[in-house]
Amino acid sequence: MIAPRHPYFASAGRPRILAHRGLVPPELVAAGIAENTRAALAAAVAAGAEYLETDCHLTGDGRVVLFHDADLVRVAGDPRAVADISYAELTRVLEGRGGALTLEDALAAFPDSRFNIDVKAAAVAEPLGRIVAPHGHRVLLTGFDDALRDRALATAADEIDAGNGTVLPAASPGQRGIVRALLASWSGSRRAAARALAGFDALQIPERHGPVRVLSRRLLDAAHANGVEVHVWTVNDPERMRRLVASGVDGIVTDRADVALAALRPQ
After folding, report:
1. What is the DSSP string of 179-196?
2. Any idea what the Cα angle at residue 114 is, between residues 111 and 258, rounded to 5°?
3. What is the mean pLDDT of residues 66-78?
4. Whole-model pTM?
5. Is 96 within 8 Å of 87 (Cβ atoms)?
6. Measured in whole angstroms, how far is the alpha carbon of residue 30 from the centre of its chain?
7. pLDDT digits over 38-50, tens only?
8. Distance CA 228, CA 242 (A)
9. Which residues are catalytic, by number?
10. Which domains does the chain have, with CATH numbers?
11. Do residues 100 and 89 make contact, with C-beta atoms less than 8 angstroms apart?
12. Measuring CA to CA, which of 13, 53, 187, 225 is 20 to 30 A from 257?
């Protein structure tokens, strides 16, 4: 494991356990609680998770909300898109399912938590960047689309330049950036690895993508040589968690933060 360089990683707790969309154990599932809700994040914090992984979309009335999917079908059986409804409507949909949260409210409600935020849509990038700018020391931005993450970071940088914040959020690459890092590690070129990983603080990856093994000794070594942590998603089996950490992985993204804490940080 490596020494952290961004204040986001200042926590002494290692390995890092990132609560994927909060925590919804079986008893909360049975109670109808949904991911990315106030109840799910509160459950993760109560279990001892310091890092909260979440996703953001923009509602029809311009509120940045914690929500993974573009529509409400999977979570609530509602065919409407998040972008087509107001925050008040989303609040009604998630009433009894754990409670809707705006990003602003989440940052205020969990002031001691560190947020790992996936920028899910083009419309949300700039307003998200403005919101997280004052909280850059405890925010990491990522996303499948590197351009959306970069837009959010650029907006945060503008806010910081204007005096609204002091530290740019940490960053992890999206699909394009991960491919570049992977190819650089395969080439064995230190210079190529340094270029591919420049500007990033963490490399958040699956262990495999279909038949392709993403995580490797070479990739771990290249990331660590460039001061970049490696976090693997989404891991719920405790034995697999232990194996990954033993291999040198710095963090585990998991649906079961409670299981991970018990497995990796036994009291």
Report:
1. HHHHHHHHHT-HHHHHHH
2. 100
3. 97
4. 0.96
5. no
6. 25
7. 999 999 999 999 9
8. 20
9. 20, 68
10. 13-171 (3.20.20.190)
11. no
12. 225
